[in-house]
């Protein structure tokens, strides 16, 4: 269903900042113009952290319209994309449109208390809702065989992660009569979520469940082995519905549309939080670049900015755009630049490995030229860069699938910073690049503003460069592609593809 959004209330939140930006920062049709061609230095100089943070404040306020989230189709997300569209339209510099479609939305949450104390937990998609209070019982081994499960009637099963699907474990627990199930991680740290992989299984019924850390589980196991009863309460809720949602596409009115420069970021967050780094940081950066590009004479090459919806549900918006784009129009896209998480609090500076020398996964021909541009930019500022892999984890993938030269920047998600990374970029070794990845705490305090500003300036540098010239980017006709890799994935496989998601179904 399409969620009804009160745009009046949503946009009123943005009126102060939007009005200030529109009058003092935006030029174009109806506004004074510098009438100068864009240069890298000029565009880069207009990017500043004050405006970046101003937009971030608006996105945070929008998340409050939907209980702290900007998940696709929510009021928070609808307010976000209308805000972007309104600011761009006011420049008069772009043709701006919504590309609207419907996609299934699924959200599950669980709350766990043990002996009356709250315990941190993540959730599983396809897990059922419900309320359970019962003693915890231990499951043998990794719980991958029915024989590992004792009779569990009136109990909550405690199961170790590993060696088989989460869904199989939960089904075995249900088949043994359990009222609920808790899976605990087999490595240190908080898990970022999981999936039961399919709606039902023949091994038994799914039961309300929770997903906890190995540290919390160790305390429960010690008490149970000492003969003490440990009681758990699981409160699980589930939402499954179709939602109408939109990409925002803005193309310069001037410039050669046979050579389109594209830059994109995803506008949605995960249901768990407001998503200010993931990917408010990328969305805001390209918005600021787009608004400031509008101060200059029309570019030589057309520039198209895109804010993708439903990335967190499997690159849905970008895949929809590329599949709906006629083959002749695909050929006109000279290159694609992607910016997903560019302000992580324990940041690294990562450039996508276009030539594949570091990761053995090259992008399409021409991607190495984009990589070189970004490496040279950061070298000029005495900043070392690491390599990001074209592993299918963000919205570059549909463009890569059809042979469009691609590149971009990122600062890290749930992966752990190395000692070398800490030496290069500061921060703390042995800690995740973003400790609030896919969590409620991904708010403004989670943004490393100096790194964000530098990356936004790097984006401006690349847009100004390619707006003027695509020298080195091959423009020979690419072979047609009938289907994309993302299109072949199941709904659940899509969800666990995105944003460098590190948990799988095992």
TrEMBL record:
EC category name: hydrolase
CDD domains, per database record: M28_SGAP_like (cd03876)
EC numbers for this chain: 3.4.-.-
Domain Peptidase M28: 247-461
The UniProt record lists the keyword Protease: yes
Origin species: Ephemerocybe angulata
Annotated GO MF terms: aminopeptidase activity; metal ion binding; metalloexopeptidase activity
Cell inner membrane is among the record's keywords: no
Protein name: Peptide hydrolase
Family to which the UniProt record says this protein belongs: Belongs to the peptidase M28 family. M28B subfamily. Belongs to the peptidase M28 family. M28A subfamily.
UniProt keyword annotations, A-Z: Aminopeptidase, Hydrolase, Metal-binding, Protease, Signal, Zinc
A biological process term (GO) from this entry: proteolysis
Annotated InterPro entries: M28_fam, M28_SGAP-like, PA_dom_sf, PA_domain, Peptidase_M28
Cofactors that this protein relies on: Zn(2+)
Signal sequence segment: 1-22
Residue span, PA domain: 132-217
